[in-house]
Design brief:
76% of the residues lie in helices and 1% in strands. The chain has 342 residues and is mainly alpha-helical. It has a two-stranded antiparallel sheet. The chain is globular, with a radius of gyration of 20 Å.
Length: 342
């Protein structure tokens, strides 16, 4: 098979051979766990299926889904983004600070304050993504090392801006009419997550960018020979990851009513990677679907909620996440070994 054919094959996310079998196997793995947890909790604790708890689960799953979609794109392209949790915090404080300053300078002009704040928040995420992408694509530094460094730096900047104190002064319309608003009984964050998910699915299936990301993660050398611009596409994945993490920070800020440097953190970063891996995204790159990642994010949120309702010690909860991640990676590796023997 020629290099061009190899890249074309890797660029087709729907190809039926090894990837198709792996995807089908993982699709069967996730719903089984999801149904098991839901049925078990429904029989154990009536609070689990209460309306307020269900809304809480869906809202938290929406936040994780948005971050995990960006994380999945980076991993599919063969990278890692450890900075997403810190970007959530940075975007939160930048958004709140900007809104407060603009609202004070232009009293009564809420639309301007909100627009400037959201733009600044998304811009901060894009800026971190550009730094990550350029270091990985141009300087050839490991994505793990680069994003580990930017994670620390970004979290430090967020703390410097706030001195550890929540930022208030945002327009109440942003908080009440957007962050805490509900449409058809569902929080705004859920609709935003669905729009993001639909957009990323479209990018993966219908755009050259999406196909090239699969090709780069599957076989970078073949992609280069085929004329794929690896640098700009790799930078693009990190920028999208940063922007989506920033969007999550903005949504959290709108819900809580303040910008906080404590948002996101290591927990959001670990959960986003877990959602991607459990959802079938290969750590080797080139394989994964964000719609399955969304199901994985819902599963992780339900699992965390169930552990809280069962009063499981918070120190033990990461153990469950770790076991599930190891199991998912082990299944992926076993699947690869079986295919290599064929």
């Amino acid at each position: 098979m020629s290099a061009h054919a190899s890249a074309s094959l890797a660029a087709r996310p729907g190809v039926a051979t090894p990837y198709g079998r792996s995807l089908l196997g993982r699709i069967g793995f996730l719903p089984a766990l999801l149904v098991l947890v839901v049925v078990g909790m429904s029989a154990t604790d009536p609070q689990f299926y209460g309306p307020l708890n269900i809304l809480n689960i869906l809202r938290n799953a929406a936040f994780l889904t948005i971050v995990a979609c960006g994380q999945a794109l980076v991993i599919i392209g063969g990278g890692f983004d450890l900075s997403v949790g810190a970007v959530v915090a940075l975007a939160s404080v930048v958004t709140a600070k900007t809104m407060a300053l603009v609202a004070a300078a232009f009293p009564g002009n809420d639309a301007l304050a909100v627009a400037c704040g959201v733009g600044a928040g998304l811009g901060s995420g894009a800026a971190v993504g550009i730094v990550n992408g350029l270091c990985v694509a141009r300087l050839k530094v490991s994505g793990f090392v680069v994003t580990l460094g930017t994670m620390s730096a970004t979290a430090g900047v967020a703390l410097m801006i706030t001195s550890g104190i929540p930022v208030y002064g945002m327009p109440q319309s942003f908080v009440k009419e957007f962050g805490r608003a509900q449409f058809l009984g569902l929080p705004t964050a859920i609709y935003v997550a669905l729009l993001v998910l639909a957009a990323v699915v479209f990018v993966q299936r219908r755009t050259l960018f999406g196909r090239y990301v699969y090709a780069i993660g599957g076989n970078a050398d073949a992609a280069i020979v085929s004329g794929v611009g690896i640098r700009r596409h790799l930078v693009g994945t990190y920028v999208l990851s940063g922007v989506l993490a920033a969007l999550t920070g903005i949504l959290l800020t709108a819900q809580v009513g303040s910008g906080q440097a404590s948002f996101g953190g290591d927990r959001m970063m670990l959960q986003s990677i877990a959602a991607a891996v459990i959802g079938g995204v290969s750590l080797r790159g080139g394989i994964g679907r964000v719609e399955i990642v969304a199901v994985s994010a819902l599963f992780l949120t339900i699992l965390g909620n169930a552990l809280n309702l069962l009063h499981i010690d918070s120190r033990l909860q990461p153990v469950f996440l770790g076991v599930i991640m190891v199991a998912a990676v082990a299944l992926d590796e076993l699947g690869r070994r079986r295919k290599s023997r064929v």
